[in-house]
Amino acid sequence: MLNQELSDDNYSVIYDANTVTVKFSGQLVFRGYGECAPIMELLLAIVATEPAVITLDLKEVIFLNSSGINMFSKFLLSLRKQENIQLVVMGTNEIPWQSKSLRNMPKLLPRVQLRLE
């Protein structure tokens, strides 16, 4: 899979195939799951390549609404079947939603490595 970028006026999602890292930035504000679909399709396409580790870098996401939280939750649940893939989630304690919400990810997928800086 090649490097890929998804963006609109509020956010950008950049996939680096060399490091298998998906970097998110901006405000992930969606009016329903349909608006999240391109991001979810990208994440599932990455999973289909069966990398050893996938890194989600969320350090620059300043806001995530409930539809975005739902998208990430569904992604984590889909990884339960992919026991050979390790997921690393990077965030920051400096952005309030991250220090609260990201801590719930290991409840959905216990093998998540959460790295809050």
Describe the structure.
The chain has 117 residues and is α/β, with parallel strands linked by helices. The chain is built from four helices and six strands, in the order βββαβαβααβ. It has helices spanning 33-48, 66-79, 96-101, 105-108, and strands spanning 4-7, 11-16, 21-28, 53-64, 86-91, 113-116. A six-stranded mixed sheet has the order 1-2-3-4-5-6. Strand 4, helix 2 and strand 5 (86-91) form a beta-alpha-beta unit. Helix 1 (33-48) runs parallel beside helix 2. It is globular and about 30 Å long.
User: What's the CATH topology name?
Assistant: Transcription Regulator spoIIAA
Number of domains: 1
CATH architecture: 2-Layer Sandwich
Care to count the β-strands?
Answer: 6
Cα gyration radius (Å): 13 Å
Distance between the termini: 29 Å
Taking all residues together, what is the mean pLDDT? Answer: 94
The CATH superfamily appears as STAS domain
Principal-axes shape call = globular
Order of helices and strands: EEEHEHEHHE
Query: Which CATH C-level class is it?
Result: Alpha Beta
Summarize, please:
The protein is α/β, with parallel strands linked by helices and 117 residues long. It has one domain (4-116): 2-Layer Sandwich (Transcription Regulator spoIIAA), CATH 3.30.750.24. It has four helices and six strands; from the N terminus they run E-E-E-H-E-H-E-H-H-E.
Keywords for this entry:
117 residues; Transcription Regulator spoIIAA; 6-stranded mixed beta sheet; 6 strands; 34% strand; globular
